[in-house]
Amino acid sequence: MDKLVLIDGNSIAFRAFFALPLLQNKKGTYTNAVYGFTMMLMKVLDEEKPSHVLVAFDAGKTTFRHRDYKEYKGKRDKTPGEFSEQIPLIKELLDAFGIRHFELDQYEADDIIGTLSRQAEEKGFSVTIVTGDKDLLQLVSDNVQLLMTKKGVTDADRYDLQKLKEKYGLKPEQIIDLKGLMGDPSDNIPGIPGVGEKTALKLLKQFETVEGVLENTDNLPGKKLKERVAANRRDAILSKELATILCDVPLDFGLDDLKYEGFEAERVAPLLKKLEFKSLLERIGADESPHDTTGLEAISVEMIGPEETSQWEDFLRQEALALFVERSDENYHRAEVLAVTLSDGKQRLFMDWETAKGWKAFRDWLQDGKREKWCYDVKATRVVLERHGLESKGYTFDVLLASYLIHPSESGHELSDIMERKRGGGLPEDDAVYGKGAKRRQLEGKELAEHLARKTEAIYQLKPELERELEENNLDSLFRDLELPVAHVLARMEMQGVKVDRDRLREIGEELEERLQELTEKIHGLAGTEFNINSPKQLGEILFDKLNLPVLKKTKTGYSTSADVLEKLAPQHEIVGEILHYRQVGKLISTYVEGLLKEIDDSTGKIHTRFHQAITATGRLSSSDPNLQNIPVRLEEGRRLRQVFIPSEEDWLILSADYSQIELRVLAHLSGDENLLEAFRKDMDIHTKTAMDVFGVSEDEVTSLMRRQAKAVNFGIVYGISDYGLSQNLNIPRKEAGEFIRRYFDSYPGVKTYMDEVVRKAKKDGYVTTMLHRRRYLPEIHSRNYNRRSFAERTAMNTPIQGSAADIIKKAMVQMEERLEREEMRARLLLQVHDELIFETPKEEVELLSKRVRQVMEGPVELSVPLKVDVNTGKTWYEAK
DNA sequence: GTTATCACG
DNA sequence: ACGTACGTGATAACT
Questions:
Q1: How far apart are CA A532 and CA A314, in angstroms?
Q2: Could you report the per-residue pLDDT of A57-114, keeping only the tens digit for each?
Q3: What structural domains and CATH numbers belong to chain A?
C-alpha cells in the first residue's frame, strides 16, 4: 500500500532548535535545528518506510488567518535569527535527500498537510503526519496517524483514533472545539478566559461542540463559568475558526510528485560533512566520503607518446570526454602548455604537448563541434590551445562556470575547492602538489600524469552533479545560453588585445615624474623635513604630531590619511592639498604608467587583459593583468592616459558604446514605480528630475548643488540606501541624509515597496535573483549582528539591480559578436567596462557599427522603459568619449 | 600575508 | 546606540 509521510517542517525544526544546545560548525553556522530535524527525518524514513514524502513549511509573515483576526500570532516573540538562518539549510538538505518541500503564500504548513492528507486518504494511502503541534490531531482518521514529538527530538507519541479517544476522550474534529474553548496563547487565540484543558474536555464530553456548549450556556456548572461563556461567545466561535485546518488549499502538484525512492548517500554526505554531522555521516554509511577519494587517489592513467596515438583513436570517437590542459603559468596569455589529459570516466589518457599537438586525430577531435568537451575554465583552455596553434570547439560544459553560478559568493572555484564542496575532498590543491613560492617545482612523468588524471576525472564526475544542481536552481539557461557563450566572446576579446601607444605612454610618464618631483620637494619643504610621503605612518606623524592637524578619523593601526579626511583638512594647511595631488600623480605613475608598460606584449605592442567570469557575487566581470576596467576617467590628469589606447590597424577608430543609467532603468523596471518609469519614458535627466522631486522645485530652480546631492541619492538607492552612507558621501549630518531619503521614497513610493519586498523575499528564501535568474545567497540576512544584517539587506537591494545590468550587457555582447560575424563586419569587440563596450573598427564601418551596436545593446531584454545607449568614436579611447 | 589607499562602474 | 554606502584590482608599506 502507498504510504505518505507529511512533515510539519517549521514545527519539527523549532522543536529541535529548543531541544538541543545551540550547536555551531567551524564556520560559525548554527546547526542545532538542522541536526535535530535530520535525526527526526532519518528516524521517520527508517520506521515508516514511506513511498511518498512531503515537508511543508509556513510561508511568509501573514496568512489568510490574519485577515480574519489581526492579532493572530500577535504576541509571539520574534523568531530568533539563529533559527531562521537554519531553514534554508534544512531545505537544501531535503533537496539532497530527494524529498519535496513546499510552502504556500497566505497559508500555513498545517493547511498544506491537511489538504494532502485528505487527498491521499481518498486515494487509499495510509498517512503519517509528523508534528509537534496538537492542532493537527484534528486530521487523524482511520487511515491518518499522527506522530507527535515529545520532550526530546526524536521521541514521539503515535496517535490514531483509539489513542486520541484514550488520551482526551475526543473525536478528531473535536480538537477544533477544544481549541475554540481553551484558546492558544502561543498563537494569541483567545478562547474563553478561565477555561483550560480540563474544563474544556469536561464540557466537550457533555456538549460535543463549541456550538453545543454555547447553546447550553444556562446548563453549565458554576456561575462564573456561565458568565464567562456568555461574555465570550464570539471569541469562542472565532477561535474555533482560526483553529480549523483548511483541507482544500489550491496546490499545483499532486501526490505523484511526492514519490520518494530512498536517498543516495553520495548526495547527502557532502552536506552532512559541511554541517559536521559526523554521527549522521556514519549512520548513512558514508563517514569515509562516498565516491570518495578512492576513485581518484589510486588512479590509473595511460601515458602515451607519438607511437601509441594510433591505438587511441576509438577513444576520441566517444560522445563526450573530459579535457584538461595543464599550463605553466596561471596567466594563459604567456603560458606554455605542459600536457593534455582526457577522460571518459573509465580511462584517462595523458599526453605531453608534443604528442598532443602532433596527433592529427586529436586535433580533428578538438575542432569537431559535435564531439562534446567537458572542461574546467573553457576560456583559459581555449585561449591557451589557440595561442599554441590549436583551434577547439564543442565545449558543452565548464565546471568552473557551473560552480560559480551555483555558489556565486564563494571565493574558491579551483577544481580542488569544488571537489571539497561537492564531495568533501578527493583532489589535492595545485599548491600542495606543485608547492608554492620558492618551493614551486614542475612535476614530471608519472607523478604529473596522475595528478592531471585526477583533475580530469574530477571534471568528468562533477559534470552530471553540477548540471543537476543548475537545473534544480533554474540556472541551466543562464549557464548554457549566456555564460558559456560569453566565455567564447571573452576569449576572442582577450586574444585580440588592445594596441597601446608605448611612446605616448612613456611621454605621459615623464611628465608625471616631473610633476611628482616638484610635489615631493614642495611637500618636504612645507613639512620642514624629508620623509616617505607614501608611508601612511610617516605621513600621519607629520600631519598630526608635527603640524598638529586635528585627527578626524583613525584606522586600526593609527591615523587615517585617506582622501576624504585630507579633503576636510585641506583648508587648514597648504601641505594637505599638495599631498592629495602627490597621491594622485603617484597612483598614475605606479599603477598606470609603470603597470601598463609591464603588460605590453613586446612583439605586438598590445595588452591582453584577462576577464574573470567567476569572481564577482553579482555577475559582473572583473579584469586583471592588467585591470583595464579601472583606467582613469574622472580627472583630466588621469584621463589623458586613455590616449595611449589606440586601434591596432592603420585608419581604424575606437568606438565606445555605453548604457545611459542602466541600473536606474533596471530599477524602474523591477520596481514598476510610476514616477521613475515616466522619467525614463520621457528621457529626462534623471538626477535633475530626482532633485526636482526631493527638493520640491521646478526644473529651472535646480541648482548644481541640488543636482549633485540628488545624484548621490540615486547612487545610494542603487547601493541599498542608508542615511549613514549617504551622509558620509555628501558630508552632511545623518539626519539631513535621512530626510533626503524620506523625501525620495515619498516621491517614488514604488521603489520603497520594491526594496521592502526584495528584503522580505531574501529573508524568506535566503537568496535574491536577477532578471536572468542569477542567484545570490544572503545567509547573514538573519544575523543578530546589526552590521552584518544591514549589509545583507543592502546587498539584497543592490544585487538584483547590479546583477540584472550585468546580465543585460553580457547578453548584448553575445548578440553583438553573432551580429558582427553574420554581417561580415571587420570591427572587433575589445573591452567591457560594466556598462560600456569598446570596439575597434575600420573607419568605413563606423556608421554601420554605431547603428548595430545601438540596436543590439538596446534590445537584449524587454524592459518597461527604453534602454539608451550613447556611442562615441575617436582615434584613441580618450577621444571616444 | 595583511593593511591602507585609490583607480573604475 | 549601533555604524557601511554596492561591486572590483593594483600598489606600496609594513608585519
A1: 67
A2: 988 667 778 767 777 766 566 677 788 888 888 998 998 899 999 988 888 888 899 9
A3: 1-168+254-288 (3.40.50.1010), 173-245 (1.10.150.20), 297-432+442-477 (3.30.420.10), 499-607+616-646 (1.20.1060.10), 665-769+779-800 (1.10.150.20)
Q: Which nucleotide is nearest to A595 (CA to C1')?
A: C10
pLDDT computed for residue A53 by the predictor:
95
Q: How confident is residue A292, by pLDDT bands cut at 50, 70 and 90?
A: very low
State the Cα–Cα distance between residues A620 and A615, nearest whole angstrom.
8
CA A833 vs. chain centroid, Å, equals 21
Of A144-153, A318-327, A346-355, A443-452, give the lowest mean pLDDT range: A144-153
3-state SS, residue A154: coil
Q: Is A314 helix (H, G, I), strand (E, B) or coil?
A: coil
Average pLDDT over residues A43-65: 85
Q: What is the 3-state secondary structure (H, E, C) of A240-304?
A: HHHHCCCCCCCCCCCHHHHECCCCCHHHHHHHHHHHCCHHHHHHCCCCCCCCHHHHHHCCCCEEE
Bases in strand B with any atom closer than 7 Å to a protein CB: 1, 3-9
Q: Which residue is nearest to nucleotide C5 (CA to C1')?
A: A725
Picking from A427-436, A592-601, A626-635, A751-760, which range would have the lowest pLDDT averaged per residue? Answer: A427-436
In the structure, how far is the CA atom of residue A606 from the C1' atom of nucleotide C11, in angstroms?
A: 22
Identify the pLDDT of residue A470.
95
Q: What is the pTM of this model?
A: 0.77
Q: Which residues contact A159 (CB under 8 A, 6 or more apart)?
A: A137, A140, A145, A146, A147, A148, A167
Q: d(Cα A174, Cα A140) in Å, to the nearest integer?
A: 11
Identify whether A626 is preceded by a cis peptide bond (ω within 30 of 0): yes
Q: Is the pLDDT of residue A543 over 80?
A: yes
Cell triple for residue A594?
Answer: 609603470
Q: From the CA of A630 to the C1' of B9: give the distance in Å.
A: 8
Tell the residue number behind the cell numbers 605616448, with chain if given: A504
DSSP per-residue letters across A468-516: HHHHHTT-HHIIIIIIHHHHHHHHHHHHH-EEE-HHHHHHHHHHHHHHH
Cβ of A560 less than 7 A from strand C? no
Concatenated DSSP letters of A385-399: HHHTT-----EEEEH
Q: Is the CB of A719 under 7 A from strand C?
A: yes
Q: How far apart are CA A386 and CA A381, in angstroms?
A: 9
Strand C close to A734 by CB, under 7 A: yes
Give the containing element (helix H, strand E) for A182: helix A174-182
Of A282-296, A360-374, A541-555, minimum mean pLDDT range: A282-296
Considering only CA atoms, which of A288, A284, A292, A291 is closest in space to residue A268?
A284
Residue A186's pLDDT is what?
72
The mean pLDDT of A285-297, rounded to a whole number, is: 56
pLDDT number for residue A73: 67
Contact A779, A766 (CB under 8 A): yes
Give the bases of strand C that a protein CB approaches within 7 Å.
Answer: 1-15
Q: Which residues contact A269 (CB under 8 A, 6 or more apart)?
A: A281, A284, A286, A289, A290, A424
